Amino acid sequence: MKHASLVVILAMVALTGMAAAQTLGGSTIVAKVPFEFVVANKIVPAGEYRVQASSMDGRSLLIRNVGAKLGLFSSTSKTENNEIASNYALVFARYGNSYFLSEIKVEGSNIIYQLLPSKAEAELRAHNEPASAETLLAARE
Question: How far apart are CA 99 and CA 90, in angstroms?
Answer without folding.
Answer: 12
